[in-house]
Amino acid sequence: MSKPLNIGMIGYGFMGRTHSNAYRKVNQFFDLEYHPVLKACCARKEEKIKPFAENWGYESFETDWRKLVERDDIDLIDIGSPNNTHKEIAIAAAEAGKMVLCEKPLAMTVEEGEEMCEAIEKAGVANMVWFNYRRVPAITLAKQVVDEGRVGKPFHYRATYLQDWTIASDVPQGGAALWRLDASVAGSGVTGDLLAHSIDTAEWLNGPIARVVAKTETFVKERLHAETNAMQPVTIDDACMFLAIFENGSMGTFESTRYARGRKNYNTFELNGEQGSVFFDLEDPQYLSYFKYADPKTGEKVEDHLTGWQKIHVTNFEHPYMDHWWVPGCTIGYEHTFINALADFLKGIETGEPTQPDFRSGLRTQKVCDAVLESARTGQWVDIN
Questions:
Q1: 37-81 pLDDT, tens digit each
Q2: Does 369 or 177 have the greater pLDDT score?
Q3: Closest among 344, 353, 347 to 129, alpha carbons compared
């Protein structure tokens, strides 16, 4: 007999939809002890949250997140609201004894993230940050390849995350749709929104980053604010590039922008090591590219006239997560990464083994993001403490 887990969802936008879809679908594809119940959702405006609740099948809705957190019939609070709300909601939810899931980035600053981690750990509640790209089967396979020693001693890590949706100067900032362009709500631009994903993936695959040096740029200096209807300075970073030194001695390059014409969600990484390399492109997510130079067990060079990059179609049952989905050759999409992440979280509750990335891991990514922004301000190398 499965156990109900009553969900309180905060936010009705893009993330509210992806998370709600995961709650509805996870038990149809994964054999789990717990099953989510869409108990209540929350947003400030009733005219927005009521149709959202009806569409996704939530039993009720609230317009004050504090009332949602205080409800006795809620077991888990999911924070899918803008970045400047994460800290207050997460701490209140933890103090109320609720499990907490939170969208990335964890917080506006390291200081906020530390307070959130302290509250979560003091309460001892299950928690997770939605770095969903870890659950792309090809990226999880890359992690497996690295852990099996098939890349060997790492030398280089390079990541790009490119989009093009803010190039036009008449795109406003702020409001419900474009809060990511408002630093007072988002905290930062591409660094917290896009590079946070790149950093989390990089440290998951290649270990901690030790030092960074960065440069940011804001190409459009002023934009109309959607709420005040006044021209205001733009204080987020439109583009960011940084160099990194990992604790294992390897070198890293990271680049992100929303001004790469033609790139919609171009998220790539490549890791080059002594024994081989791996490469991934989110715009072609069903494939992982792998180059085998040497046998991981013997270290001997592979002598073969067919040696070269291998493009692996990650859809077989032996590949991560794929035995829960379709037959080999049939791909899964963006929404499935959230279902995979939720399944891991629910299994963690069942087994008592905390699911990663948790808040402490999210804080680690926040520390790198803050160091990148500090370096961009000072022009100096910054150590990650």
A1: 999 999 999 999 999 999 999 999 999 999 999 999 999 999 999
A2: 369
A3: 344
The pLDDT value recorded for residue 1 is 63
CA distance 67 to 42: 9
Sign of CA dihedral 323, 326, 330, 333: negative
Amino acid identity, residue 135? R
Mean pLDDT value of segment 178-195: 95
Beta carbons of 376 and 216 less than 8 angstroms apart: yes
> CB within 8 A of 71, min separation 6: which ones?
8, 40, 62
Fold of 3-125: Rossmann fold (3.40.50)
User: For the chain, percent helix, then strand, then coil, each to nearest 5?
Assistant: 35, 25, 35
Residue 306 pLDDT level (bands cut at 50, 70, 90): confident
Q: Report the residue count for the chain.
A: 385
133-378 CATH choice from 3.40.50.11540, 2.40.40.20, 3.30.360.10, 3.40.50.150: 3.30.360.10
152's CB contacts (< 8 A; 6+ apart) are 273, 274, 275, 276, 294, 296, 299
Q: Which amino acid makes up residue 196?
A: A
Neighbours of 140 (CB within 10 A): 21
Helix (H, G, I), strand (E, B) or coil at 341: helix
Does this model's pTM top 0.85?
yes
For the chain, which residues make up each domain, given as ranges? 3-125, 133-378
Residue among 337, 348, 369, 318 at smallest CA distance from 132: 337
For the stretch 137-174, pLDDT in tens is 999 999 999 999 999 999 999 999 999 999 999 999 99
